[in-house]
Amino acid sequence: MYGSASRHAEGGDGRIAGTAFGGAIAGSALLLAAAAIEAVAALRVGEQNEIDPQVATVMWDLQSILFGLAAPMAFAVLVLATAVLALRKGLLPSWHGAIIVVLGIAMLIPPINYIAIIAFQFWVLLTGMMLYLHPQPAESRSANTVV
Q1: Measured distance CA(147)–CA(139) in Å, rounded
Q2: pTM confidence score
Q3: Any idea what DSSP says for residue 52?
Q4: CA neighbor of 83 nearest in space, from 9, 136, 133
Q5: In this structure, what DSSP letter does residue 134 have?
Q6: I need a surface site. Which of 97, 118, 137, 144 has the fewest CB within 10 A?
Q7: DSSP 50-119
């Protein structure tokens, strides 16, 4: 739903909508990689009943960086691209666009992006509800009507 709504709101070649999609894909891949690294460490403990402390430290650090630093920065691309579409193209109300600019910037700052990723979950829920409930503009309804 987001992809078609953002592409429709932007018009043209859809560069901003594509950038938002790329940020979503990159952030999701980084979160999955972090979960996989943590699972590998747990599986090693389950199979061998122990794990070398240095290996455990490296795996913990790696998954923490992927989850707490890299993924929020990738999701910031999604959030900021959505803010551009909200403020310039009217995809969402302008008050929502102004709020998500703050969230997107917070997701780029390492000391606070651990907390911003939590706020991101609520942003996804709120934005999804707004896009679902937001009526389609009249000109696009008439363009989609089969006569």
Answers
A1: 15
A2: 0.80
A3: -
A4: 9
A5: S
A6: 144
A7: ---HHHHHHHHHHHHHIIIIIHHHHHHHHHHHHHHHHHHH-SS-HHHHHHHHHHHHHTTSHHHHHHHHHH
